[in-house]
Inverse folding.
C-alpha cells in the first residue's frame, strides 16, 4: 500500500441500502477526514477523526457515520442511502496542516 | 463560519502564457492557505501553500500571494504547459475545536491550449 487507498472505486446503490466506503492509509497520520465533492460546491467535510478512538462531525454529517478503531482505517457508512448522497467521496489524512487525499469513490444512489 | 470564494470558474490560456486564480476568505482566524490541483478521476493534490505570516511563496513556475488585510490570496502559474490543465482549488484553513477545519473554494477549471 502506498499512501491512501479507497474502496470501492465506484458503486451504484439502490436507495435504502446500507453501504460502507473503506479508507486505509499507511502513513501513520493521526488525523483523517471524509469529504464529499459535488459539482459547483467544492469539497465539504462529512466527518473527521483526530486520532484512533475519536471522531467528530463536519459540515454535512447527516446520514453518515464513521468509526476509527485503529490508526490506519477510517470507514464511512451510509445507513440508508438516499439519492442526495450521490457524490464523489474522498478520504484524506493530515499532518502539520497538509492534507493528503485518496483517489475517491464515485457513489450513485438510485 | 468561513466562506471562500474563487474566481474564475473556468480559465483558458495559450501554452506559455500565465494563469491567475483568485480567492477571498471571510474569517480572519484562517491561517493556512493551501492550493490543490485535481486531475480527472483523481483526488486533489497539494501543489503549494502559504501561511498567514508570509506574503508570498514561490515554487518554480507556481507562486502564491496572500493579502491578510484584504483577505484575499492568489495562485499564479507562469509559462503554462498542457499538463497544467486541471481543476484548481483554493482553501482556507484554521484549527477549530481540535481539528483542522478546511474550507474549499468551488474550483477553477484551467485549460492550457497547445
Amino acid at each position: 500500500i502506498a499512501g491512501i487507498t479507497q474502496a470501492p472505486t465506484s458503486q451504484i446503490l439502490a436507495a435504502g441500502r446500507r453501504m460502507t466506503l473503506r479508507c486505509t492509509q499507511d502513513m501513520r497520520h493521526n488525523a483523517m477526514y471524509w469529504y464529499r465533492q459535488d459539482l459547483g460546491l467544492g469539497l465539504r467535510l462529512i466527518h473527521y477523526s483526530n486520532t484512533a478512538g475519536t471522531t467528530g462531525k463536519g459540515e454535512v454529517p447527516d446520514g453518515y457515520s464513521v468509526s476509527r478503531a485503529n490508526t490506519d482505517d477510517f470507514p464511512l457508512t451510509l445507513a440508508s442511502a438516499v439519492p442526495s448522497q450521490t457524490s464523489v467521496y474522498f478520504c484524506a489524512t493530515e499532518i502539520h496542516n497538509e492534507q493528503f487525499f485518496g483517489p475517491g469513490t464515485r457513489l450513485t444512489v438510485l | 463560519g468561513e466562506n471562500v470564494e474563487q474566481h474564475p470558474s473556468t480559465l483558458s490560456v495559450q501554452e506559455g502564457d500565465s494563469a491567475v486564480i483568485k480567492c477571498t476568505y471571510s474569517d480572519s482566524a484562517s491561517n493556512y492557505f493551501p492550493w490543490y490541483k485535481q486531475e480527472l478521476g483523481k483526488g486533489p493534490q497539494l501543489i503549494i501553500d502559504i501561511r498567514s505570516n508570509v506574503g508570498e511563496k514561490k515554487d518554480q513556475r507556481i507562486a502564491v500571494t496572500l493579502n491578510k488585510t484584504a483577505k484575499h490570496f492568489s495562485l499564479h502559474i507562469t509559462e503554462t504547459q498542457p499538463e497544467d490543465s486541471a481543476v484548481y482549488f483554493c482553501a482556507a484553513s484554521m484549527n477549530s475545536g481540535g481539528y483542522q477545519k478546511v474550507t474549499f473554494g468551488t474550483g477553477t477549471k484551467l485549460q492550457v491550449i497547445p
Summary: Chain B has a mean pLDDT of 95.
